[in-house]
Amino acid sequence: MNFVNRVVEQQMLRTSLDELNSSFIVIYGRRRLGKSTLIKKILTSNDVYFLADQSEKSQHIRLLAKEIALQIEGFDKVIYPDWNIFFETLQLRTTKKFTLCLDEFPYMVKKSPELPSVLQKLIDSKTTKFNLILCGSSQTMMHGLVLDSKEPLYGRADQILKLSPINICFLKEYLKCSDIQAIEEYSVWGGIPRYWELRQKNNSLHNAIENHIINSLGTLYEEPYRLLFDDMRDIIQASTLLSVIGFGANRLSEIAARMEKPATQISRPLDKLIELGFIEREIPFGEQPKNCKKSIYKIADPFMDFFFRFVIPNRSLIELGRISIVLNEINNNFNQYVAWHWEKLCRKAVSGNTINGITYNIASRWWGNVSKDEIAEIDIVAQSIDKKTILIGECKWSKVSNAELQIDKLIQKAKKLPFTKGHTIVAVLFVKECPEKNKNILLPEDIIILMNNE
Fold first, then answer.
1. What's the whole-model pTM score?
2. Domains and CATH numbers, the chain
């Protein structure tokens, strides 16, 4: 896979590693984001990269000593009884500065709970002769190791880098596809580089889904469980929550009822899934998060959304090899599925961006009563930074004609909303295709350009 984006991250890492004094860097984020690839991109032939597995402590020590021996001759000819002796010897034998990367560090800590304290002692001595990079996919453990005040490594890192999914603009560049295709592809793969790599090896999105997701032997058929296993104690409860939300239960009371549990018992795992980026909590525009009783929950990650929308309900058919039935269901519902992710991308594109000369704050949805007998729902609401203008948007993943008429209807709808009085209303249609393009109609190419401003 060609390395895309991560330019800022590379610059930040290289700057830290080039400092006169040794640096301690922490990199973490969910699986498949390209953490290891990023690290290998900035390491030189004089550095040491060690990928831990779920072996025992003694095996970790032996294997790491063997890697270091490629730079320090004979380093693996000694038996190291513990990590203290290992790192003391490394300090003594280091004659020139290099970088040591311990990838999947949580595996090492699982078998050597004392290791963070050993590294703390090394870092606090201020005499470390090498840079140290710790990397891991367990977001919970990595976050705890460096950001929990009770942990030995708290406050020691010179740089903490949490990797996020990559912008859709780079997906379009990587797959060399149209703007419309990029939206559809992103709705399945999200911003995860490894998924892009698997997709590229197939002739079409259709074939990639068939080969990797709705196939019991597919590379990504068990992927959600691997992701949950990294960070959740109870993956059965977590996957059930995702399944229930994927089936269309979005309010806390509905989710609790389907799981046959009190809402109080699912609040904590819900919060954990939100923290990990798998679920998002939505509240209507203008509401305060702490006091809002109108919250709804959606699957935030595109791949997880696709999986729990189409794979889980059809798992028995997939196991029987009756893929054609599942593919037919996906084809029949794909536009509706993409529409939701199109709407999310549009909100993200509006947030903090300038459209037709006006800069807007964070965009969100709104739903509620506009009168005693009338309920309204607005796809996108954003207030301008100067608080003089309100953007009201409607999203459609379809070809739209009579756009001016629809914009007029949207303006009339907006005038009934409780928060538009005293504001200039700007109505915008976000559509897949429109023959009557004007400044109040935004198409996929416009959204991708706005997204490129991140």
1. 0.91
2. 7-162 (3.40.50.300), 169-334 (1.10.10.10), 351-451 (3.40.1350)
